[in-house]
Write a structure and sequence with these properties.
The structure holds 2 protein chains of 2 kinds. Chain A has 5 helices and 6 strands, in the order E-H-H-E-E-H-H-H-E-E-E. By secondary structure, chain A is an alpha+beta fold. Chain A has one domain: 2-Layer Sandwich (Beta-Lactamase), CATH 3.30.450. Chain A has a 6-stranded antiparallel β-sheet, sandwiched between helices. In chain A, strand 2 and strand 3 form a beta hairpin. The radius of gyration of chain A is 15 Å and the shape is globular. Chain A starts with a strand and ends with a strand. Helix content of chain B is 57%, strand content 26%. Chain B has 3 helices and 4 strands. A 4-stranded antiparallel β-sheet of chain B has the order 2-1-3-4. The chains are: A alpha+beta, B alpha+beta. At the A-B interface, helix 1 and strand 4 of A face strand 2 and helix 1 of B.
Chain lengths: 164, 141
């Protein structure tokens, strides 16, 4: 179950970065995505280089949507996200992810990205499977191999447990 | 349910840059885009979807971009220099262009009136000439 909370409460989410530098993963990843576009509507899969994404990469994932428009497949999963699952998510459908999980809320709006053909960021709170209240912020960014139709989604998400 | 759509203006058209569920985050990002001067225009459109009526309403909550800044700066500069407020030159030019377009049919109308007047003139001249000729003939015989 998700409950939308004020984004002001999410400001602490992020890595220890130099003062003045944007800390929020969603905005940093969006900026990186714009750079990858380089004047095109969408970047291609081949433009995504983990080295460029630096410290964000462990919190990122890539979905394949071509041929899986209604239920995309995990193509790449970052270490931080992979660690939350016993089995590898690679090759598995989005519907495989159970509710009460960061990935569940972070991928729940992939169809809106396909429809808008634009990056979408959503955040808020949800109750984890262990009953903890979790705050999260996520972003889904369209990727296209032919530059016209969306063939995948680059995503990023992070979360933290809310203090009792 | 609300969504905040950042739209950017480039190559003569608006396109969706990104969509947020959080107003503050969308406004922050729009201002950041605006400062970068990468696009001629940037705006944030708030879309409110009413699930009961299945209707959505939109309103623009932020406008930025160099074109917008220039438009706002011009009257302020003129006021500061003590000059009389002047109409926006871009709008005036647009109006002048529109006026020129409107004048075009008037010219055509004048041209189309000239021909019947000329024909009428010729008929009257021929008629007067004929009457004069007939009178001359009747005087001769």
């Amino acid at each position: 179950m998700t409950e939308l909370l004020s984004d002001a409460q999410l400001e602490d989410i992020g890595e220890a970065l130099p003062k003045g530098m944007e800390r929020r993963l969603a905005l940093r990843l969006l900026t990186q995505w714009r750079d990858l576009c380089a004047g095109r509507a969408f970047p291609a899969f081949s433009d995504i280089n983990p080295a460029d994404l630096d410290d964000m990469w462990p919190n990122c994932f890539v979905l394949d949507t071509e041929g899986f428009e209604t239920d995309p497949v995990f193509r790449i999963v970052g270490d931080v996200i992979a660690a939350k699952f016993d089995d590898s998510l690679i090759g598995k459908r989005v519907s495989f992810v159970p509710p009460g999980n960061l990935f569940y809320v972070a991928t729940s709006y992939f169809s809106a990205v396909m429809q808008k053909e634009a990056p979408i960021s959503r955040g808020g709170g949800f109750i984890s499977e262990h009953g903890d209240r979790i705050l999260y912020r996520s972003v889904l960014l369209p990727v296209s191999d032919d530059g016209i139709s969306i063939s995948g989604i680059l995503g990023g998400a992070n979360c933290r447990k809310m203090d009792d | 349910m609300k969504a905040f759509e950042i739209q950017t203006f480039a190559a003569g058209k608006w396109r969706i840059d990104s969509v947020f569920d959080d107003r503050e985050l969308a406004m922050f990002e729009a201002r950041r885009i605006d400062q970068s001067t990468r696009y001629a225009g940037v705006r944030v459109v708030e879309e409110t979807f009413d699930e009961s009526s299945q209707l959505s309403t939109t309103r623009t909550i932020f406008r930025g971009g160099s074109a917008d800044r220039n438009a706002r700066a011009e009257p302020a500069k003129e006021q500061a220099s003590g000059a009389k407020p002047r109409r926006n030159s871009r709008n005036r030019n647009a109006r002048d262009r529109a006026g020129a377009k409107r004048k075009q049919p008037v010219k055509e109308k004048k041209k189309s009136m000239a021909l019947p007047l000329l024909i009428l003139g010729v008929i009257v001249a021929v008629g007067v000439g004929a009457l004069f000729g007939l009178q001359e003939l009747s005087d001769a015989f």
